[in-house]
Amino acid sequence: MSTDRVVLVTGGNRGIGRAIAERFVAEGYRVAVTARSGEGPEGTLTVRADVTDSAALDTAFGEVEEKLGPVTVLVANAGITKDTLLLRMSEGDFDDVVATNLGGSFRVVKRAIKGMVRARFGRVILISSVVGLYGSAGQVNYASSKSALVGFARSLTRELGARGITSNVVAPGFIETDMTAELPEETQAEYRKAIPAGRYGSAAEVAGVTAWLASDDAAYVSGAVIPVDGGLGMGH
C-alpha cells in the first residue's frame, strides 16, 4: 500500500524499533526514527533525540514535520532496563527506567497528538512487554513502567477516541534481539520451555502487528493490549 501518512518510531535504530520502521517503509509510509546514536534503516529519516529530553524531542518533531509532514502514526518504542532485585534497586535505577519508558511515552505522545487532533486522524501505538502484566523477578522498575502504558493508552482512548485517534498497546514476549542473545543458553532454554509456541518471536512478527494497528483495518480498535508472545502471557 502507498500512503502519505508519516510514522515516527522512537528508538528505531535497533531491535524491535528497527524492524517496525522497516515494515512501515515496506508498506509505503514516510518514516522517521529517533535515535540517541546510530541510524535508522534505509529509507527512514533519523533524528537525534533522547525521549527524556522534551526540548530535544520538540526539535526532532520539528525536523520530521518540515521534511516529511505532520506525524499521524506514533510508535513509542524507546526503552531501557536496569534489572536488579528490589532489595538492591536504587532510587536511580527505578527513576531512570520509569523516566524513559513511561515518561518518554508521555513526552512523545503529548507532542504528537496536537497534529493528530488537527488531522482528525491518529494512531498511537505503545510498545510494552509481556512482563508488564506477567511480572518478572528483578524487573520491578521495568514491569511497572510497561504496565503503566496500559492505563495511559486507555485514558488517551477516552480523551481522543471521538477524534479519529486510536491508542493501543503491543506487548511483545521473548523476541530474538541483541538483548535476548546475550542471555546464557540455559536461561534461554528455560524461557523457551515456558512459551507454548516453543520458540522466541521475531522482531518482524511484532512489526506486523504494529503495522496492522496503524492501518485502516484497525480503525475501530482502541484501548487494546495485543500480546505477541507465543502464548506466554495468556491474557495477562
TrEMBL record:
Ketoreductase domain: from which residue to which, for each copy?
A: 5-178
The signal peptide stretch is none
Identify one Pfam family in the record: adh_short_C2
Family, per entry:
Belongs to the short-chain dehydrogenases/reductases (SDR) family.
Q: Which protein is depicted?
A: Beta-ketoacyl-ACP reductase
